């Protein structure tokens, strides 16, 4: 199977929104008037972002999910993406599973594959995604204000726990491992919640490298601090995984574990009903975990309400 | 040096056209009204697209040049790009050279780095580029008409000859090797010519996999054929490399050699003065090499004007 056959067979679909889709030197796209575009890119490398044993269907899903999550974090509506794929060989079963996982998620979000590249080399999946928002409505990291309530969506820490189990650092009952592994391999990008929070959230980021690290980006960009109530974040793991996890490890996973692809955001306390409405509207649970302060520091308040001294790390590819 | 320091030090520049550049979950961009967007993506893998010995400055240049070349092939004006980079380690000297080569070319074309990703892994450079054209003025592969004249820009075959020399298949005088190698490692994307051909060229593609292969894409998309005059294409190599190259190899390099990043395009014979004007305006030589036919076949006419029977191949990553 040659390069062009491979594209034709597994990746070419009729253009639906694009003026010109796959098959020319460039894709051609007419942006919606009155809208700004949001762009993000994520690269997934075998052994770094996923295990060689991963189900290719899950990998196709995750490759797009992590990019959709960046759009969600800006409140953008997904539109289109480009996929650059380096493959050791043209393995039809792998390509079949991968493309199915990819397209299932892309169709769910109306996000069209409009171009990309295919080459031979170590397995590497690079996606660039484009979404849009009505002009001026992108949610940035830089808008947090002292006094804002701090929230996270969904569940935190399960993906990290699955990785710890893979590494043999913790032993989990099979059913618990399976549900945690699904959180790691098939994250749910919070696209509908992100859009529903336009005009409500003052700042937002997605949690890819751990809550503390990604919240840290908001604090730095907004030049503010935050207090997190540990009593509010500990229960954020899936119930069954939380019960199977030692308390210290649970806190590590929730606060510093990567790969959750939930949203962390802040909003005025006066907007709490609107936040709840956005959560209901998008069918995504949202939990208030603390507040933004003017201290320029990130403080964890323990079960006793006092600041904790334990240090946590977020993920960095080169440290 | 951590991931964020690396980005800050080597890749973050103040946004000039972007509403939000590097440093948030997404870049935010306001498209120009009345314009369509053109997108392309190219992935470069060590050992496949470049040799481990390549000068990192040249590699930075080439990584962007191959993407600019795709925009040129559509007649688009470069606007912005995203860079996803997988690196075995954070090598400061390499990053310094790579980023200098990249930014020198991006500044020349006013094409802004607005986002991307950085991770650890086998060396892989994935760029997605965005340009724009006034609405309806993109030049596609599908517009060739029987009777059109067929043209190529600049020089062909030198990059391929350099690769053959690297492989030890041909021996070249040092000065000749150096100039051919520069064509391979630092191709010149024909951006100004591409834009100047809007409204003139009926179809266009860039030559990355070889003239015959890339022209073949135009013929297939336009459902036409072509005749190429071998006497017109043979002189297209740089003069000094042509003299150092056996005749058969020269023809192979010119017709099937990849990595030239010139443009192949066709235009009505009535537009030949306009084509020449576009060439002069953009400072890019253009050579008429044949014509589009209604035969649906690609025929090479030898020095005697008769069809040749020798077969040529273009590059395919998986065959």
> Which band does the percent of strand residues of chain A land in?
15-25%
- The count of domains of chain A is 2
How many strand units of chain A?
Answer: 11
- CATH superfamily of the largest domain in chain A, called what? PurM-like C-terminal domain
Lateral strand order in the biggest sheet of chain A: 7-9-6-10-8-11
CATH class of the largest domain in chain A: Alpha Beta
Classify the secondary structure makeup of chain A into a structural class: alpha+beta
For the CA atoms, what is the radius of gyration of chain A? 20 Å
Oligomeric description of these chains: homodimer
Main β-sheet of chain A, in a few words?
A: 6 strands, mixed
Known CATH architecture of the largest domain in chain A: Alpha-Beta Complex
Order of helices and strands of chain A: HEEHEHEEEHHHEHEHHHEHEE
Helix content of chain A: 25-40%
The most extensive interface between chains reads: A-B, 71 and 72 residues
Describe this structure in words.
Two copies of one chain form a homodimer. With 319 residues, chain A is of the alpha+beta class. Chain A folds into two domains: 3-134, PurM-like, N-terminal domain (60s Ribosomal Protein L30, Chain: A, 2-Layer Sandwich), CATH 3.30.1330.10; 141-301, Phosphoribosyl-aminoimidazole Synthetase, Chain A, domain 2 (Alpha-Beta Complex). Helices cover 36% and strands 24% of the residues of chain A. Chain A has eleven helices and eleven strands. In chain A, the strands form two sheets. The first copy, chain A, has a six-stranded mixed β-sheet, sandwiched between helices. In chain A, strands 2-5-3-4 form a four-stranded mixed β-sheet. In chain A, helix 3 links the parallel strand 3 and strand 4. Chain A is globular. The model of chain A has no long low-confidence stretch (mean pLDDT 93). The interface between A and B is large, with 71 and 72 residues.
């Amino acid at each position: 199977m040659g390069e062009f056959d491979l594209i034709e067979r597994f990746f070419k679909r009729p253009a639906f929104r694009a003026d010109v889709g796959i098959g020319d030197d460039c894709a051609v796209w007419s942006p919606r008037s009155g809208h700004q575009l949001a762009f993000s890119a994520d690269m997934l490398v075998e052994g770094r972002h996923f295990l060689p044993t991963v189900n290719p269907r899950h990998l196709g899903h995750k490759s797009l999910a992590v990019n959709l999550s960046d759009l969600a974090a800006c409140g953008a509506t997904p539109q289109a993406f480009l996929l650059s794929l380096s493959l050791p060989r043209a393995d039809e079963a792998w390509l079949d599973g991968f493309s199915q996982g990819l397209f299932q998620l892309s169709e769910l979000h109306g996000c069209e594959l409009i171009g990309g590249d295919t080459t031979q080399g170590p397995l590497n999946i690079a996606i660039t995604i484009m979404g849009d928002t009505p002009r001026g409505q992108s949610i940035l990291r830089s808008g947090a204000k002292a006094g804002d309530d701090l929230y996270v969506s969904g569940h935190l820490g399960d993906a990290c726990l699955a990785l710890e189990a893979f590494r043999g650092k913790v032993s989990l009952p099979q059913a618990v491992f399976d549900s945690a592994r699904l959180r790691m391999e098939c994250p749910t990008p919070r696209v509908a919640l992100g859009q529903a929070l336009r005009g409500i959230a003052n700042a937002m980021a997605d949690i890819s490298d751990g809550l503390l690290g990604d919240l840290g980006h908001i604090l730095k960009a907004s030049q503010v601090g935050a207090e997190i109530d540990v009593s509010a974040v500990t229960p954020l793991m899936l119930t069954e995984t939380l019960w199977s996890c030692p308390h210290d490890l649970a806190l590590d996973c929730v606060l510093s574990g990567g790969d959750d692809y939930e949203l962390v955001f802040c909003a005025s306390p006066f907007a709490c009903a609107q936040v709840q409405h956005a959560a209901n509207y998008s069918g995504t649970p949202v939990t208030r975990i603390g507040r933004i302060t003017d201290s320029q520091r990130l403080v964890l308040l323990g079960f006793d309400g006092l600041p904790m001294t334990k240090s946590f790390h977020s993920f960095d590819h080169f440290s």
